[in-house]
Amino acid sequence: MSENTNEPQGQEADSLEEAFSAPAADGHPEATEGVTDEAAAPGETGVAAEAGETADAALAAERLEDLRRLQAEFTNYKNRTAKEKEQLRNFVIGDVIASLLPVFDDIDAARTHGDLEDGPFAAIAKKLDETLTKQGLIRFGEVGDAFDPQVHEAVLQQPTGEVEPDHVSMVLRYGYKVNDRVVRTAQVAVAVAE
């Protein structure tokens, strides 16, 4: 009896194989499922291929435009972060220098009195000046400079004929910049006509 049950299954499997491998009858919806592009009408194949190529070209152009936009955004981001990093660096250097201003004032006073002519302290002061100059430190406020309220703080007016009017006639305290940022304005006396 077991042989009888196996026979129909084997016959059923053979008939299923034949059914799937045989072409579908015309008029049935399944008839077009197995048809490839080669079996389609010759005119339809060319139109479909051109439509596919056009769609592929449009998609490629769109992807290329997206890629260019992303590349431009990344370049802008990279430039912006580099600029922000440089600004932060300058700001931190300015803060460090602002905390050292009393030391600079003492060094300037020692120079004025001739105490920095020779010796180890003169060498240390020179190294400090060189190091901070490399970091962008600029000292300003010299006698004869034109008075600029952006960088000079006028403490007094001094009638003198040695310096032109509205120019610095005496420096009471030097000013300092780090690159373009003014860390401290210079305290000066401004010359006026006698």
From TrEMBL:
PROSITE patterns: GRPE. It is found in: Cytoplasm. It holds the Pfam family GrpE. It comes from the Bacteria. Gene3D superfamilies: 3.90.20.20, Head domain of nucleotide exchange factor GrpE. CDD domains: GrpE (cd00446). Residues 60-87 form a coiled coil. Residues 38-54 have a biased composition (Low complexity). HAMAP family: GrpE. Participates actively in the response to hyperosmotic and heat shock by preventing the aggregation of stress-denatured proteins, in association with DnaK and GrpE. It is the nucleotide exchange factor for DnaK and may function as a thermosensor. Unfolded proteins bind initially to DnaJ; upon interaction with the DnaJ-bound protein, DnaK hydrolyzes its bound ATP, resulting in the formation of a stable complex. GrpE releases ADP from DnaK; ATP binding to DnaK triggers the release of the substrate protein, thus completing the reaction cycle. Homodimer. This is Protein GrpE. The gene is grpE.
